[in-house]
Amino acid sequence: MTTALTPLTRPATTAVTAGTAVTAGTAVTVEIRCPQGWVPVCTLDDLTPGRGVAALLPDGTQAALFVDRVGQAYAIANRDPFTGAQVLSRGLTGSADGRAFVASPLLKQRFDLASGGCLDDPSVSVPAYPVRTRGGAVDA
Predict the structure, then answer these.
(1) 57: CB partners within 8 A, 6+ apart
(2) Which of 14, 28, 74, 139 supports an S-S bond with 21, CB 3.0-4.6 Å?
(3) Residues 3-15: pLDDT tens digits?
(4) CB burial class (10 A; 0-12, 13-18, 19+) of residue 76?
(5) Paired sense of beta strands 99-103 and 110-112, if any
(6) The pTM is what?
(7) Given this model, what pLDDT does residue 81 score?
(8) How far is it, in rounded angstroms, from Cα 4 to Cα 113?
(9) Strands 53-56 and 4-5: what pairing?
(10) What CA dihedral angle connects 84, 89, 93 and 99, to 10 degrees?
């Protein structure tokens, strides 16, 4: 089941890099940079490695948000360019040649999570959004 998220309204403070140990019980916010600026969309605890979530951005577009097993977060557009359906957040994740990807659940084209490029058809891509994590207390 895919969870749809709308942006969080609380501001974030301390920056935490992906993969950094965080004290239990502290919320680490995941933010996506879109045309409106950095938008907090969920907490890192809302994300499960290998599963995506859809986030509604302020301009009405959707992003598909993922986190890998080492804590690196990725965001690409949720719209599958081959079908027009908002389904990429429901795709299967994997890696090819060291590049993390999501395969569309409909026609199975694979999209690079870092660049948005289609690994199966280089003439097609989806927007990729910069992602950062913020907040929480970092373990020393």
Answers:
(1) 7, 32, 34, 36, 39, 63
(2) 139
(3) 455 544 433 333 3
(4) buried
(5) antiparallel
(6) 0.79
(7) 98
(8) 19
(9) parallel
(10) 70
